[in-house]
Amino acid sequence: xxxxxxxxxxxxxxxxxRPTWRDHMDPKGADPGPLMTRPEFVARLTAEGLDVTAxxxxxxxxxxxxxxxxxxxxxxVPHSMYPFWMLRVVRVVRExxxxxxxxxxxxxxxxxxxxxxxxxxxxxxxxxxQQAQEISxxxxxxxxxxxxxxxxxxRLHERMTGVRVLDTELQLIDANGRRSRLGFGGxxxxxxxxxx
Length: 196
Description:
This protein is of the alpha+beta class and 196 residues long. The chain folds into 2 domains: 11-121, Multidrug-efflux Transporter Regulator, Chain: A, Domain 2 (Orthogonal Bundle), CATH 1.10.1660; 129-189, no CATH class. It has helices at 11-14, 38-47, 54-63, 86-98, 103-112, 117-121, 129-161, and strands spanning 35-37, 70-74, 77-83, 169-173, 179-183. The chain has a 3-stranded antiparallel β-sheet. A two-stranded antiparallel sheet has the order 4-5. The protein is extended and about 60 Å long. The relative contact order is 0.11.
């Protein structure tokens, strides 16, 4: 019998752990935004029309097809956690599978994609107070232009369902999963200036 100290190194003994999604973030200490547990992540994938199970995610992670989740405690219980941007990774994996790509090809393509590029390519901060004011004015003008359309949709929803719409809002979700809600205020029935 050979002692563990004298046993030859096996592949499993030298295998490096697969990178996590944190390893794909740049800079490394960047805030990933809100995180989802694996069941929350699977539910979100399902809501977006992607049929991916928790078991499939675990398999993809073990094969290096997608970056591994990060283990964190929530309410004292350890969970596999995912950032919002991993939804895009899974979507691309499914698209590549549909196109006939094998696991090795998918792994190479997934590793090569700069997943946080949309954050890096987003518009920088305004360069002056005047530019900031112009952007703010355009932003509020666009919301004002959108309001009648939102109210029309809400009225049509009321007519289809027979149930009164009490409020309307638009939700913006950035690449980090942060949400901004724009309320249009008032109930649909209170908006008398808009006619269908």
